[in-house]
Amino acid sequence: MSLASSPTTTMLAITEPERAQVFYGDVLGLPFKGKNLEGSLIFELAGGATLGLLTRPAGSQPQHTALSFEVDDVPAAITDLEDRGVVFEDYDLPGLKTVDHVCVLGSERAAWFLDPDGNVLCLHQNL
C-alpha cells in the first residue's frame, strides 16, 4: 500500500452543520456528497479528494490556513466569490501585505477568507 496514491480528506471543525453546508455548497460551489457514518458533512474536491466538516465546539478551528484552493486567476476568483458574499481578509504585516486582498509571495499570488466558523481558507495562484 502506498499513501502517495491514496485519496485524501481534509477535515475542518465547524459548529453549525446547516450553516456550513450552505457556505461550502451554495457559496463556494463544492459538490455535497452527503454525510459519513459519524455525521460529518462531506464535499467533493478536485482530484478525488474530499472535505469533511466535523461538528466541534467553537474555538476548535486552527489560526493558520486550513485549506487552500489553487485557481488560475486569483483576482477573478475574488470577484466571483465576493459576488456570492465572501469577505476577504487584508493584512499589513512584516513580510505579508495584501493589496486589493492579494499578496504576492515569490512566484505565487494568494488571498485569504474565513468560513462562518473562522477557518482560514485561501486562494492561491502560481505565477
Polypeptide structure, described:
With 127 residues, the protein is α+β, with helices and mostly antiparallel strands. It has helices at 17-27, 74-83, and strands at 9-14, 32-35, 41-44, 50-55, 65-70, 92-93, 96-97, 103-105, 108-114, 120-126. Strands 1-4-3-2 form a 4-stranded mixed beta sheet, covered by helices on one side. It has a 4-stranded mixed beta sheet with strand order 5-10-9-8, covered by helices on one side. It has a two-stranded antiparallel ribbon with strand order 6-7. A hairpin with a 2-residue loop joins strand 8 and strand 9. The longest helix is centred in the N-terminal third of the chain and has 11 residues, at 17-27. The mean pLDDT is 96.
Total beta-strand segments: 10
**Helicity level:** 10-25%
Low-confidence stretches: none
Number of helices: 2
Q: How much β-strand is present in the residues?
A: 35-45%
Gyration radius from CA atoms, angstroms: 15 Å
Largest sheet: 4 strands, mixed
From the helix content, strand content and strand pairing, which structural class follows? alpha+beta
Give the topology string: H per helix, E per strand: EHEEEEHEEEEE
Shape assignment: globular
Mean pLDDT over the residues: 96
Distance between the termini: 35 Å
